[in-house]
């Protein structure tokens, strides 16, 4: 069972082919996913659905600065990645131009998806550039406008 995500009216909408007609809506990604999984477990306990199994393979997150982050969830070895994709055209945010990040267009290991909600800054915990010592980088985005599974 894989969940499908889209954004509508400031909500992340979660649906699944395993339970047609069921949907969950919440501005927070984790809560939309959890509501969907709980509803499926209630209606179809025989499916044995878990949050991890419900994650889509790829999720595209678009922010107010037009930055796009492609999150890939690997359900087998649980190594998830995020790739910041180039902006569509040049866009300034307030008085600041968008900056290029050192690892743009490169898949970086996603240690944790700390926060992902419509209208709020996403917080991503990424594996650092140097593996020794193991250091993480916290990436905070501009406010999230859209979340959708691919």
Shape: globular
Total domain modules? 2
Strand content: 35-45%
Enumerate the spans where pLDDT stays under 50 for 5 or more consecutive residues: none
| Structural class by SSE content | mainly beta
Number of helices: 2
Q: What is the number of E strands?
A: 11
Main sheet overview: 6 strands, antiparallel, barrel
Rg from alpha-carbon coordinates: 16 Å
Order of helices and strands: EEEHHEEEEEEEE
* Proportion of residues in helical segments: 10-25%
- Terminal CA distance reads 15 Å
- Strand order, main sheet: write it out: 4-5-6-9-10-11
Report mean pLDDT, rounded to a whole number.
84
Summary, kept brief:
The protein is mainly beta and 150 residues long.
